[in-house]
Amino acid sequence: MKHKKINYNSIKFKTFLYFLLFAAVLMAALWILQVFLLNNFYGTMKTQQTKEVARDIESAYRFRDTDKFLKHVSKISKSYDMYIYVVSYDGKTTYYQPSANDVVQAPGFETDTDVSGMDGAEQYASQIQTLNEHMMRGDGSAYVKITNPSTSQEMLAYGSILQHKDKDPMIVYIFSPLWPVSSTIKILTHQLIYITIISFILACLISLYLSTRISRPIRKINKDAKKLAAGEYGIVFSGGHYSELVDLTDTLTTASIELEKSDMLQKDLVANVSHDMKTPLTMIKSYAEMIRDLSGDNPEKREEHLQVIIDEADRLNVLVNDMLTMSKLQSGKISLEKRVFNLTETVEGILHTYKILEEENGYHFVFQCDCDYTVNADEEKIKQVITNLINNAVKFCGEDKTIIVSLKKRGRSVAFRVEDHGPGIAPEELEHIWERYYRSSTNMKREQEGTGLGLSICKEILTLHKAKFGTDSTLGEGSQFWFELECQKVEKRKVK
Ligand code: ADP
Predict the structure, then answer these.
(1) What pairing do the DSSP bridges indicate for beta strands 141-147 and 154-164?
(2) Does pLDDT of 104 surpass 80?
(3) In the Cβ-directed half-sphere of 234, how many Cα atoms lie within 13 Å?
(4) How far apart are CA 370 and CA 286, in angstroms?
(5) Ligand 1 atom 11: the closest Cα is on which residue?
(6) Atom of ligand 1 nearest to the CA of 450
C-alpha cells in the first residue's frame, strides 16, 4: 500500500498542529488552576470570607435582638459551610452550636480519627483555649491558623468577644476549613478529564474542517493557475468563502482575461501589421515593375508611377513610426518632459500648418478660444495628441469639411475639443476606438486608412499625463474628441 507523505508545511498540517497546541495550552492552564492551585486559592478565599462573616455577625449582634441574632448566625453557618459556635462570656452557656443532624459538620482533620463522635466544643477545646488567651490580650478578637501535621491541611479558627451595653456579652468562634472538600477536587478532576478529551477531539475536528475549507480552494486556484501558465487563457478562477481568497480569485481572473486580451492583440498586431505593410509593398512592387516594363520611357507616366511609389513608401514610414512610438510608450521607456507652456499658442501653431488644406482643399477650420491657457505638460507629446485628433477629424469630416477646435475652461482644467460633422461612431464602438488597431466598421476606406494606432498613442500620452479624455459622437451627425489638462494660469487674450 502506498502511504501518502505528510506535508509538514501545508496549511492543513499547520492548522491542525496550532489547534492542538492551543487546546493543550488551554487544558494545561485549566489543570494547573483548577486542580493544583485550587488549595491555595481556596485557602485565601476562605480566610477572606471568614473575616467578612465575622464582621457580619458582629454587626448582627449589635443591631438585632438575641433571638434574631442567633437565627442569623444559624443561617450564616449553613450557607457558608462554617462551624460557628456562640457561648456566653464565661463560657458556661452555649447560645448556638450546629446540631448533630445539621448540614454543617465540625470540620475535623480527616485523618484524625480521635475527633469522631465529639462535638465541636470538645473537639476544638485546645484551639478555644488559645483563642481566648489571644482575645484577652488583644482587642477582643483573634484568629489562629491550625495545621494538621500529618496532612498539612489548614483550618482557620476565629474568635471575637461581642459586647453591647444592653446585652449579655458573648463570644463567637468560627472554624473554617481552608482546604476544599476532597470530593470537590475529585469531581473537578473527573470533569476536567472529560473536558480535556472533548477539547482535543473538538480541536482536531475544527482544525480539519477549517484547514480543508482554506486549503481546498487554494489547491483549486493553483490547478487553474497551472492551466493559465500553460497558455489556457480566459479562465474564471473560483473557490473559497473567505474574502482574501475571493479577492485573489478576482485578481487572477482579471489577469487571465488581460492575458487573453493581450494575446489576442498580439495576434491581431501581427495580422494587422502584415496586412498594412503588404498593401503598400505590393503597390511599390507592382509600380516599380510597371516603370521597368512599360513606363520607363514615358516621362509623364513614369513620374506618375514614381509618385505612387513615394506615397506608399511614406505610408509605410508613418506606420513604422507610429509602431515605434507606440512600443516605446507602452514599454514605459518614454518619460514626460514637462514644462509650462501656453496651450492656446500651441494649438494656434498646429492649426496654422493646416492652412494649406484650407487654401487648396476647401477645408474650413474654426478655432474657438478667448483666453491664454497655460499648462504644465510635455509640449511635444501634447502636440502629437492634438495633431492626431485633428488629422482624424480631417479624415472623417463631413461634407461641410468643417473642423471646429476649441479650448474652454472646465473647473480647474482646460478642455481641448475637436469637432467634425462626419459619419460619427456607433455607441458600441466608442469604447474600442482608443484601442490599438481598432477601426470602426463604418469608416473603412483605403484613402482614409490610417495606421489604427493614432488614438491609442493619444490614449497612452494622456494617461501618462493623468488627463481625462473621451469621445462624444452621434452616428450620422459627427464626433467630438476631447481631453482635459490641469490649468496653471488663465489670461484674457490680448488682441494682436
Ligand atoms: P486611424 O489611423 O485608423 O485613424 P485611429 O486610432 O486614429 O486610427 O482611429 C481609430 C478609429 O477610430 C478610426 O479608424 C475610425 O474608425 C475611428 N475614428 C477616429 N476618429 C474619428 C472621427 N473623427 N470620426 C469618426 N470616426 C473616427
Answers:
(1) antiparallel
(2) no
(3) 4
(4) 52
(5) 439
(6) 2
Over its C-alpha atoms, the chain yields an Rg (Å, rounded) of 50
CA-CA distance, 216 to 213, in Å (whole number)?
A: 6
**pTM score, two decimals?**
0.53
Please answer whether residues 488 and 409 qualify as being in contact, where contact means their C-beta atoms are separated by less than 8 angstroms: no
What's the DSSP call for residue 34?
I
Compute the distance from residue 29 Cα to the ligand 1 centre, in Å: 75
Where residue 93 falls (left for φ over 0; alpha for ψ -120 to 50; beta otherwise) is: beta
Ligand 1 site, CB within 6 A: 392-393, 396, 420, 422-423, 425, 433, 438-440, 443, 450-456, 479
What is the three-class DSSP state of 112? coil
Closest to 143 measured CA to CA, from 168, 106, 163, 172: 172
pLDDT above 80 for 410: yes
477 CA to middle of ligand 1, Å?
15
The sign of the dihedral angle between the CA atoms of 277, 279, 285, 291 is negative
- Cell numbers placing 434: 482608443
Atom nearest to 433 CA in ligand 1: 12
Give the H or E element holding residue 399: none
Residue 277 alpha carbon to ligand 1 centre in Å: 19
Burial of residue 466, with CB atoms counted within 10 A of its CB: 0-12 exposed, 13-18 middle, 19 or more buried: exposed
- Nearest-angstrom CA–CA distance, 213 and 102: 59
- Residue 401's pLDDT is what? 92
Pocket residue to mutate for ligand 1, from 392, 400, 475, most atoms within 8 A of Cβ: 392
User: Which of 325, 397, 433 best tests ligand 1's pocket when mutated (most atoms within 8 Å of CB)?
Assistant: 433
CA of 440 to the centre of ligand 1 (A): 7
Q: Calculate the dihedral angle through the C-alpha atoms of 372, 378, 384, 386, rounding to the nearest 10 degrees.
A: -30
Pick from 419, 423, 417, 424: nearest CA to 402: 419
Q: Return the number of other C-beta atoms located less than 10 Å from residue 395's C-beta.
A: 16
Calpha distance 110→412 (Å, rounded): 93
User: For the segment 463-473, what is each residue's pLDDT rounded down to a tens digit?
Assistant: 999 999 999 99
* Per-residue cell: 119: 462535638
Cell numbers representing residue 377 in the block: 505638460
